[in-house]
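Field reference: sequence -> structure
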Amino acid sequence: MENKYYGGCDVGSTTGKAVIMCDSGIVASAIVPSEIDPEETAVRALEEACGTVPELGGYKNLDYLIGTGYGRNEVPFADENISEISCHAIGAHHCNSEIKTIVDIGGQDVKGISLNSDGSVLEFAMNDKCAAGTGRFLEAMSRIFRMELDQFSDLSLKAKKVIPVTAQCSVFAETEVVSLLAKRNPPDEIAAGIQAAVAKRCFTLLKRIGVRPLVTVTGGCAKNRGLIKALAKILAMEVTALTVDPQIIGALGAAVFAGRKLNAPK
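Structure field:
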């Protein structure tokens, strides 16, 4: 096998992501739903990604593999584990070296990450005490509207005004939204209120680390166009789109670290 292949596997609370690289760049990636067992999630993601690289012959033949995400310590076949904060930072930097601020919206937490010019972490802040503002929260909201998540993500784009959703707790926010819908308020304007509330939570987190352009969003919620619009408005600056699927940024960063380890002078 002429090429050296290395990878990153991000085991998150809702999805598992894998990225396979060689020196020419990304050769494969995969996103799978998380299983109860993090190791099983990692295996599924890696098998799906490696299955598109026949020359590799399976993930066990990777020259170096780094695990990341909340389940990273449960991936025994990884050569090394690195925190998701560092991996999101270097993954975003790999896509665009001008990025200085990241909002990583995961299934169960939200992180604000400030970057040095080399892609290392300057500072970070994390909100993991409440589900409000996370991917799980937005999934719950989409169910209230009887919509798929991607439909709900676009609903607020049609709104002519914003109906505020003021509850700070995810449970109370759901009750508030149900009440607003029952009073026949326009669904798109309620959805705009939900997106604005999530954007405000992100902004509060970012203020703790300082907001420096370029700003980007990583994680599955970066595909939520309504949220990106609301966040850009509250930040009063553009939110930069990444050149790859924002959901694989953690796995990409892990793969970049793997490549550095593999190619480091012996």
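Note: The radius of gyration is 19 Å.
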